[in-house]
Amino acid sequence: MRNMRNYSTRHENVRNDTTLVLDCSYLCYQAWYTMRELSFDGLDTGIIFGFLSRVLHLATQFNTSDIHFCWDSRHSYRKVLLPSYKEHRHAKISKAELAAKVKAKKIFTLLRKEILPAIGLVQNHVQKGCEADDLIAAIVQGRMGSFVIVSADEDLFQLLAANVKMYNPTKKIMWTPARLREEKYTSPDQWAKLKCLMGCQSDNVKGIKGVGFVYATKYLKKVLTWGSRAERLIKEGEKDAYDRNWILVKLPFPKTREPKNLHARNTFNEPAFIKLCKKYGMKSFMAEDKLAEWRTAWKI
Questions:
Q1: Dihedral, CA atoms, 112, 115, 116, 119, nearest 10 degrees?
Q2: Residue 1 counted as domain residue
């Protein structure tokens, strides 16, 4: 695979070599839950302000402008295979909450299609049928360079490697293969296998009945008591679980293509940014000290 760092030498004297890969749905929902009351001229601007604030913070924290924005598609290959995939996420919320989520997702699309490109953040990726997780996997796997995935989604643990970490900004935790082994008693290459056996409650993927994380981990490490009920359950259900779940939990999904614009350069279009701030009432971003932060983040 090509070395993504070959094109990122423009700030080599002042930048580190970190490439950030963002799970944008996670960051958008984080902004929505914490700033959903913020509005301007009837538009819910909390998502826009919160998302851009997080992008600025991450660019500053990791001292890089090499940031990839990965988005979920409205369509889902996995849902074609499993119609109940993630279906339960909407089962217990009110109609008002569901309508609010639909409205929020329109702002996610506005960020992806209009706002980010307008201000110069062009490493922006979406593919029909794929999730952000698939695009993140397609970016980091098999490439040289230093990557930090920004997400709280544990499905991404399978992507951890010597040059790939995962930062959870909610808990301020940096995940590495060593931390995964220490805290979860497993390794990245075993993670998708674990998900096959025990299922994934958040995605509504069913595993082997009666088999949870502890039993599945012990089984894969070959320390589960031979002949025990749990060992028999897993042996009996293992093939069906892999046949049913592997394509759902393994990243990336087989139809995922290499994202476009991998070698594009993010910049900061200050006039467009100021115009955007006026349009959405984001006055704090227009203060000189805050504009200076944006310029510094992209070394303008």
A1: 170
A2: no
The total of structural domains in the chain comes to 2
Q: Are residues 123 and 207 in the same domain?
A: no
207: tokens are 């595993």
What's the confidence (pLDDT) of residue 174?
98
Of 54, 62, 57, 50, the residue nearest 20 (C-alpha):
62
Angstrom distance (rounded) from CA 197 to CA 70? 28
Decide: 268 and 56 in contact? Cβ < 8 Å: no
Residue 2 lies in a domain: no
Is the pLDDT assigned to residue 216 strictly greater than 70? Answer: yes
> Global pTM?
0.91
The tens digit of pLDDT for each residue in 276-285 reads: 999 999 999 9
| Tens digit of each residue's pLDDT (9 = 90 or more) over 127-179 | 999 999 999 999 999 888 999 999 999 999 999 999 999 999 999 999 999 99
Cα-flanking dihedrals φ and ψ of residue 80, to 5°? -65, -40
Q: Within this chain, do residues 97 and 218 fall inside the same structural domain, yes or no?
A: no
**Alpha helices (H) in the chain, listed in sequence order:** 24-35, 46-61, 77-81, 95-110, 116-118, 132-140, 177-184, 188-198, 213-220, 229-249, 270-279, 288-297
Residue 300 domain flag: no
Binning the chain into helix, strand and coil, the percentages to the nearest 5 are 50, 10, 35
